[in-house]
Fold this protein.
Amino acid sequence: MRSVPDLGALAGKRVLIRCDFNVPLDGDVITDDGRIRAALPTLTGLLQAGAKVVVLAHLGRPKGLLNPKYSLAPAAKRLGELLGTDVKLATDVVGESAQAMAAGLADGEIGMCENVRYEPGEESKDDAERAALAARYAALADVFVSDGFGVVHRKQASVYDVAKLLPSAAGSLVAKEVEVLRKLTEEPARPYVVVLGGAKVADKLAVIDNLLKVADTLVVGGGMSYTFLKAKGYEVGSSILDADNVEACKGYLAQAEAAGKQILLPVDTRVAAEFDFAGRTVSQVTVVPSDQIPADQGGLDIGPETEKIFADAILGAKTVFWNGPMGVFEIDALAAGTKAVAAALAETDAFTVVGGGDSAAAVRQLGFADDAFGHISTGGGASLEYLEGKTLPGLSVLEG
């Protein structure tokens, strides 16, 4: 991939940079600014080089409609605080306000367009519609830098199409993410342990398929584990179950056994009859063996024996990739499993990667510092697709 130095001297040039500022909000308060902080090295370098920096970013899913709920105002404010400078925010994406903002920047100044997903062409499946919007993005600047790793798996106007219209390069964040993921896929230090959690097996079928070829041990927890337990013939009560993929999970268990590899599943489970995610409440939580989940209860976290087994696998590894929580970590009574996995990753001397998304949110919410891990990815979906072996449009367009 081309890098920022390949763009030459940037003093006095307008640099359009795609960032990922899709941060969690409580009202207009950012509850985790990790993605904004991750963009600071590239942005600081551009400003110090004397560039006029125009930021493109997204927040949430406004679906092509201007919705104040998804304004980037909180992100612009927080970015300004972190940079120690004023970040000018346009009131539109590519209209008069954005054009005036970009034209009015002095060398070493930064401005931000409003949420790119306000524009219906941003996520359009129609190539011509995306290209037309990308041309309007390109008119705002002289060169393009891609630094939003969380969206490089999307063929979107501000990620893919605009990179074809301007001299373009990967920012340091995207370059670092790719470097880390290459370590996981090409020659990882062994034993290599992959920890997968989260709710849906279907989201991770392809990555399981690919990682079974390169990992030594696959550790499966979270909501997706109940489909694997069902594949072993266990009853899972009211736990999350992907009935369509039970047979696929049986196949992976057989495939791992034939290859002499392990798929570790929960041996005990924290269960409850009722829980309210929105209200952050749960009825009485008990621990049962994973093959004895009551019919009227559902699994919501791994149990203490499983915590030890999973932690031992992590502590015995040389490389660990983790994507997906072990339970409903947002509720205190169901956070122990995820915390145990995070603690093991923080303790080990192995090369550790936390695969973005809910996993990154979990470790921060549970009080772990970012530097407790080898790398925290800013893109959960992008990380998984890279590990599946897919070609990511936002990366391939930067190759030259």
